[in-house]
Write a structure and sequence with these properties.
single chain; about 375 residues; mainly beta; nine-stranded antiparallel sheet; five-stranded antiparallel sheet; globular; binds beta-D-glucopyranose
């Protein structure tokens, strides 16, 4: 018996030494903090690597609360990265495509860069033609968030907080924002968003991860098979602002109710497809009455068998096929991020809701609490 314990100890010690010496993947069921460099202003930025019991790993930086890498198994059990990202903070500081980042105060667009609240007009920066995109010039994606490791029953968790001051980027109210990322032991990356304000404001928080389930650098995502739980979508004008209509997907290239390859209709002779340069549209999610969180979308990558399901409490999801990626951004390992080499499924309230009284409201008042959850669940198929 003694001998066996000794053996196990020696074997354990050898394993630990090899693991430490190899600098390889972190210990299952752990979170590791390391430096990720400094911002152009000299502010230190950290990288937290969360590893669950199965060795699945999510690396998250305090710069923009961005998901840097996400390593999940393929159908043979081999771990591989499934998101675009950069090797250090410099990449994120120059990241014009919001790759992996937390988005706020208002994810997606606000038309004509203004909105009215309580009879007062608020003017924002026009950083996307005539409109405001993803919070303005310095959105939450360019902020350094405060990080704290927190305990989770079912995995590894990291809490990120940020105070967006009254008037920041033109938005009213001191907004205290908290996002908890949990990498669960069932291979899901969960995002719990909450916020409070001291003045009436609008907000729409999301994460802007770009996925390629075959791995970044493996070409276009057009053979990924997608299902979206939506009977309607919000058609847009030439500035990608919703017209206000909720249009049936039936009979259009936007019908993903049955699993369909992303590329099957992406070049269709369709006005909306042309306006988006592919898919860049908000889908109106079907909700099951009483269900606090519902399935929004499911994607299967046929060669690796990797599957991601998106679950959310939000009423919409932006399906974006990376139409504006043009190869000028170089990511991890020097890979050029080319057109349609990744897709996004950004859970959200509808774009331009502050100017559309018929859309679900994005208003938050003092004394109320903003609370949303989105989960990306990974698995495989034969
Ligand atoms: C928008 C795209 C935009 C991209 C930013 C998406 O959420 O809908 O139009 O280009 O984010 O990189």
């Amino acid at each position: 018996m003694m001998r066996r314990v000794l053996w196990v100890t020696i074997a354990g010690a050898i394993l630990m030494t090899t693991w430490a010496a190899s600098g390889a993947a972190a210990k299952p069921g752990s979170t590791k903090k390391s430096s990720f460099g400094k911002t152009p202003d000299g502010e230190p930025v950290d990288l937290y690597t969360l590893t669950n019991k199965n060795g699945v790993e999510a690396a998250i930086t305090t710069f923009g609360g961005s998901v840097v890498s996400l390593k999940v198994p393929d159908r043979s059990g081999k771990l591989g990265d499934v998101v675009l990202g950069f090797d250090s903070v410099d990449g994120y500081a120059n990241n014009t495509s919001y790759i992996g980042a937390l988005i706020g105060r208002y994810g997606n667009r606000i038309g004509h860069a203004q909105f009215k609240l309580e009879g007062k007009t608020y003017t924002l920066a026009k950083n996307n033609g005539e409109n405001t995109l993803h919070g303005g010039i310095k959105g939450f994606n360019k902020a350094v968030w405060t990080a704290k490791e927190v305990s989770a029953k079912d995995g590894q968790a990291l809490e990120l907080t940020y105070l967006s001051k009254d008037g920041e980027e033109g938005f009213p109210g001191n907004l205290h924002v908290r996002v908890i990322y949990t990498l669960t032991d069932s291979n899901a990356l969960k995002m719990d968003y909450s916020a409070t304000t001291d003045k009436d404001t609008v907000l729409n928080l999301t994460n802007h991860s770009y996925f390629n389930l075959a791995g970044p650098g493996s070409g276009e995502v057009l053979s990924h098979v997608l299902m979206i739980e939506a009977d309607k979508f919000t058609p847009v004008d030439s500035g990608l602002i919703p017209t206000g209509e909720l249009r049936d997907v039936a009979g259009t290239p936007f019908d993903f109710r049955k699993p369909t390859a992303m590329g099957a209709r992406i070049n269709a002779d369709d006005e909306q497809i042309k306006l988006g340069g592919g898919y860049d549209h908000n889908f109106v999610l079907r909700r099951k009455l009483g269900d606090p969180i519902s399935l929004a979308a499911r994607v299967v990558e046929p060669t690796t068998g990797r599957v991601v399901e998106v679950w959310t409490t939000e009423p919409g999801v932006q399906f974006y096929t990376g139409n504006f990626l043009d190869g000028s951004l170089k990511g991890k390992g020097g890979i050029s991020y080319t057109k349609r080499s990744a897709f996004c499924l950004e859970t959200q309230h509808f774009p331009d809701s502050p100017n559309n009284p018929k859309f679900p409201s994005t208003e938050l008042k003092p004394g109320e609490r903003y609370d949303t959850t989105t989960i990306y669940k990974f698995s495989t198929e034969k």
